[in-house]
Design goal:
The protein is mainly alpha-helical and 102 residues long. 44% of the residues lie in helices and 11% in strands. It has one domain. It contains 5 helices and 3 strands. A 3-stranded parallel β-sheet has the order 1-2-3. β1, α2 and β2 form a beta-alpha-beta unit. It starts with a helix and ends with a helix. The mean pLDDT is 94.
Length: 102
Amino acid sequence: MKKKFLHILKKKGKKPLVCLTAYSKPISKIIDKYCDIVLVGDSVGTALYGFKNTHEVKLDTMIMHAKSVSSNLNNALCVVDLPFNTYRNVNEAKRNSKLIIK
């Protein structure tokens, strides 16, 4: 992961970064070679589950999609949204971020 992050930093100000959203392994496999960053967004709630907004997305849902997407990335850095009400304070944000990374 550190190597991917350093690659992105080297491009800063020199070349545009390409970031696309993926929620599944098949999509991440297709876009990996074209992206610097692949986002697993909480928009998964509205895009795949038909929720009215992203507030219904749970941390477990984000972790499940993050595992699926990141398991197939070789080039792009995986960035995962923290869903609504999982970052109400710094400690909660850190704890939940560690769960995603784990």
